[in-house]
Design brief:
Elements: H1 3-14, E1 26-33, H2 36-43, H3 52-66, E2 72-78, E3 81-86, H4 97-116, E4 122-129, H5 132-161, H6 166-173, H7 178-187, H8 197-201, E5 203-215, E6 222-233, H9 239-249
The structure holds guanosine-5'-triphosphate and magnesium ion.
């Protein structure tokens, strides 16, 4: 068979699973550490429930993804997950889902492994969203999920410290309301409201304009130039203020 014919014949199979994210839809990618319960509990010696070295490795991984050749206007990380909002006009690889997913998962796994010195692998999914409100809801959802997980994780580890086994601690928390969990923490001297914002709401990464002065080489006059700088926000605002922060990212230009 001639190469051209063989090529044509095989490409049909190769392209069978290809899917494009339709133009006009927002692209969000969410990456999640694979089997990180084992990694954080058995393979690494981490602070519980939250560890600074782990958090910083996740932030470095998010920064790396935002600098991996795509136009990403917002990065969000909490626990072992990362969400990325693409510029609405992103057209890399013709918006092929398999390209986005495989590149992001590969880049994240490589950077995280480098940061912590142990094998850390990420999965990745693409979430196409049709309008601004759903993008805001998406990030509200991840943020609220982080809050629930933080409350749960603090309660869980306090029970473990008291000597309860993993299954006993899990059972004790089953069916408990948010108020009950808050009270439980209060009894051991922890006010949930006073915990660091990055634990309760995650960390946001986005571009802000920074003004710097420079000298125009043509006439040696001082000029002010504005350039984009990546900001790592450890204290994400709550409710409507967070919505505003996300809405701003929808029209943001990447550098
Ligand atoms: N000790 C510690 N554990 C953390 C920290 N951040 C995340 N984790 C743990 O990371 C795990 C993430 O959980 P999941 O993503 O739900 O579960 P997983 O084991 O990764 O499973 P899959 O995602 O389905 O592969 C949880 O067990 C968290 O307790 C941290 O800062 N310190
Ligand atoms: Mg995971």
């Amino acid at each position: 068979m001639k190469f051209e014919m063989l090529d044509k014949k095989m490409r049909v199979f190769e392209q069978n699973m290809d899917q494009l994210v339709l133009p006009g839809l927002y692209i969000i990618a969410r990456l999640d550490g694979r089997g990180f319960t084992k990694l954080t509990k058995e393979r690494l010696d981490l602070e519980r429930p939250f560890d600074l070295r782990f958090r910083d490795a996740m932030i470095e991984t998010t920064k790396h993804l935002m600098d991996a050749g795509f136009k990403i206007t917002y990065g969000y990380t909490g626990s072992d997950e990362i969400s990325l909002l693409f510029d609405k006009n992103e057209n890399s690889f013709g918006r092929k889902a398999r390209k986005l997913v495989s590149i992001l998962a590969g880049e994240a796994s490589a950077r995280f492994t480098q940061a912590l010195g142990t094998l850390g692998v990420f999965d990745c999914r693409i979430i196409p969203l049709p309008n601004d409100d759903l993008v805001v809801d998406y990030f509200r959802w991840r943020c609220e999920d982080a809050s629930r997980n933080a409350l749960n994780a603090w309660c869980y580890w306090k029970l473990r410290e008291k000597g309860l086994s993993a299954s006993e601690a899990t059972k004790q928390l089953e069916g408990r309301s948010v108020a009950e969990k808050n009270e439980m923490l209060f009894q051991v001297g922890i006010n949930y409201n006073d915990l660091p914002a990055w634990q309760k709401r995650g960390v946001g990464l986005f571009y802000t304009d920074m003004e710097t002065t420079s000298v125009n080489p043509m006439d040696n006059r001082e000029i002010t130039v504005s350039r984009k700088q990546l900001t790592v926000e450890m204290e994400l605002p709550r409710s409507t203020e967070y919505d505003i922060l996300i809405k701003k990212r929808l029209t943001e230009q990447t550098p």
